[in-house]
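Design request, tokens follow.
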């Protein structure tokens, strides 16, 4: 069916250009058969197909998640548009998943799937032109028999007779093209609708950064060229870019535009930076409706913002507070989604770690499961929630996004095609982060009245501190102890803290890490084969008994320890690797750095008695402090507090 393009509204683009920084992974955009090659020039990319060549868009970035549109938007029909040159057969295929598997558990998945061609068209365009086809989406509920088989129900419209998909748990459309002759060319396409937008949307992309100039300038320049200045951009009037410059190093490095604003800010961490961006959006709430939180150390395809903002334009009234969250892909494994949402309790495990080259996983990813929060590498939220639920807590770094997600995200959308590439979180280890994990975890549990008794908190805290002490990671133990003691200072501590000064003080106590060359100069050799062997070592029952009886050697003098240094994987080790060892090299293959920890019985007992004193304080004061955060924590979330905290009321920034 041909439609007048002037009466159609764009939902998203079918993109052929890939992100080179993420490895130019074509399988995230299209699946190409034989006789297909991609060409690129200043005008963009195109696919050239020989006779019999096939291209399919059942991929993460280019499939159309129609079950999401049926549930959340007023979109009832979609127009498929391709820009083509040559003689093609074009197929529109519907893929549905009709049962709810559990995604985050590694259990067998039993699901009913249905895969069907709903349209097969012959297209012949001698000159470059647009081919379009319109499909109506039904919202009738499908019947299922007791055995789980489909009761097929046919309906008829002007174009086709087909099986009604109803409201499947997960569903997508995708396009497949087959070249009927040589030298056929595919330039890309779009998903359009003849429905009218239900609301006006203007989103501020809120990038919080600290001295990550290369990442930030690359992303902002791409957004500027592809979205803000591009003639074919469907959101150039619906997007602004806010760069909150905590390091104050980006002056003069961003494109000059009234849609790209830079805000020098105090280095009060991610919480301070992202909150500054939210405040700037809130102060412009007469025209800015949403704010999109975005990390500074990622790579993105700018067209994901088109998909996100255009989706918001068509929201049903009951979903006006909807959040849209992006999946996170690893730069080292660019087709693997490491996380799309997560749980706070139950170990904080992530949902949806999936390999996205697999078609079935695309359907799994669009399934909706309960979760507690989403991270701020890419999360869109309505500005109106500031008046309803306040601003983030001043947690500096770590857990700030988790807490705000728990507080706000009642309705969150995770959808194929909205994702970014990010460095793996476990690639580096910094001991000072233990301070923030300890302190902020306690604050969140208290603020949300989720602290399951101080005795349980004390048991977990004590175990983790001892774990570090047994591994001679005294700096890590120090940070955990200090974090708990600062939590016990209550709400007023957070009202007066200066996070930049606190960070500098913490870093002065941090564990020193070295490159392989530096360790060699110090007389330590990195033997990866030996490291892997040590990591696989399993202790015998007698050895475990002796380790525990002697507190992993800490009740005997270190002069009796083995003097030859051992080597372990920093991310995969436990106390048995350190027992009776005078020196241990902890090597991190992720970032190519290591640290040398040395046993000190004196230091062990110093921190052991500090741990006992902290546990006593937690027993006698923990309930009072927990109730204080629950009752007064909102004082740390007001616009007035944050403006004063960031020096926006005439104070020095």
């Amino acid at each position: 069916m041909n439609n007048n393009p002037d009466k159609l509204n764009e939902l998203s683009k079918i993109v052929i250009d890939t992100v080179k920084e993420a490895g130019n992974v074509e399988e995230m955009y299209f699946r190409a058969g034989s006789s297909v090659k991609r060409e690129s020039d200043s005008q963009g990319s195109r696919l050239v197909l020989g006779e019999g060549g096939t291209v399919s868009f059942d991929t993460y970035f280019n499939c159309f998640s129609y079950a999401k549109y049926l549930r959340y938007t007023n979109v009832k029909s979609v127009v498929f548009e391709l820009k083509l040159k040559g003689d093609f057969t074009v197929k529109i295929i519907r893929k549905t998943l009709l049962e709810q598997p559990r995604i985050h558990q590694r259990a067998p998945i039993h699901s009913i799937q249905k895969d069907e061609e709903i349209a097969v068209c012959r297209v012949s365009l001698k000159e470059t032109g647009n081919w379009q086809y319109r499909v109506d989406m039904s919202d009738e509920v499908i019947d299922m028999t007791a055995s789980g088989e489909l009761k097929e129900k046919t309906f008829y419209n002007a174009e086709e007779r087909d099986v009604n998909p109803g409201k499947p748990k997960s569903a997508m459309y995708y396009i497949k093209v087959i070249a009927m002759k040589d030298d056929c060319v595919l330039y890309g396409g779009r998903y359009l609708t003849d429905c009218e937008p239900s609301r006006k949307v203007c989103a501020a992309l809120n990038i919080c950064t600290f001295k990550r100039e290369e990442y930030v300038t690359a992303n902002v320049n791409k957004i500027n060229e592809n979205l803000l200045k591009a003639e074919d951009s469907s959101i150039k009037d619906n997007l602004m870019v806010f760069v909150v410059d905590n390091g104050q190093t980006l002056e003069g490095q961003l494109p000059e535009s009234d849609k790209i604003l830079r805000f020098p800010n105090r280095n009060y961490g991610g919480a301070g930076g992202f909150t500054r961006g939210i405040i700037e959006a809130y102060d412009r709430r007469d025209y800015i409706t949403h704010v999109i939180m975005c990390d500074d150390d990622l790579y993105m395809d700018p067209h994901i913002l088109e998909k996100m903002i255009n989706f918001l334009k068509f929201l049903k009234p009951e979903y006006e507070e909807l959040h849209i969250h992006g999946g996170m892909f690893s730069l080292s494994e660019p087709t693997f989604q490491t996380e799309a949402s997560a749980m706070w309790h139950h170990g904080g495990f992530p949902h949806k770690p999936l390999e996205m080259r697999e078609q079935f996983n695309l359907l799994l990813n669009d399934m909706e499961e309960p979760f507690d929060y989403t991270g701020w590498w890419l999360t869109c939220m309505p500005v109106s929630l500031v008046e309803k639920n306040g601003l983030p807590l001043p947690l500096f770094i770590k857990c700030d996004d988790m807490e705000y997600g728990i507080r706000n995200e009642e309705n969150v959308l995770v959808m194929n095609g909205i994702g970014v590439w990010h460095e793996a979180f476990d690639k580096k280890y910094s001991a000072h982060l233990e301070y923030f994990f300890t302190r902020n975890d306690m604050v969140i549990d208290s603020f949300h009245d989720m602290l399951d008794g101080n005795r349980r908190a004390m048991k977990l805290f004590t175990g983790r501190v001892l774990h570090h002490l047994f591994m001679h990671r005294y700096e890590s133990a120090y940070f955990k102890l200090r974090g708990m003691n600062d939590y016990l200072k209550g709400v007023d501590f957070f009202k007066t803290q200066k996070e930049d000064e606190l960070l500098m003080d913490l870093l002065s106590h941090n564990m020193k890490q070295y490159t392989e060359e530096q360790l060699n100069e110090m007389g330590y050799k990195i033997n990866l084969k030996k490291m892997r062997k040590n990591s696989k070592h399993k202790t015998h029952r007698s050895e475990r008994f002796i380790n525990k009886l002697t507190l992993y050697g800490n009740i005997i003098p270190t002069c009796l320890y083995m003097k030859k240094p051992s080597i372990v994987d920093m991310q995969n080790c436990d106390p048995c690797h350190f027992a009776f060892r005078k020196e241990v090299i902890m090597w991190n293959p992720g970032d190519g750095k290591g640290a040398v920890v040395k046993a000190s019985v004196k230091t062990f007992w110093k921190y052991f008695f500090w741990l006992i004193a902290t546990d006593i304080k937690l027993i006698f004061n923990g309930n009072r402090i927990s109730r204080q955060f629950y009752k007064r924590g909102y004082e740390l979330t007001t616009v007035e507090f944050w403006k004063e905290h960031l020096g926006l009321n005439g104070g020095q920034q």
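Comment from the thread starter after seeing the answer: thanks! Confidence is low (pLDDT under 50) at residues 101-110, 140-166.
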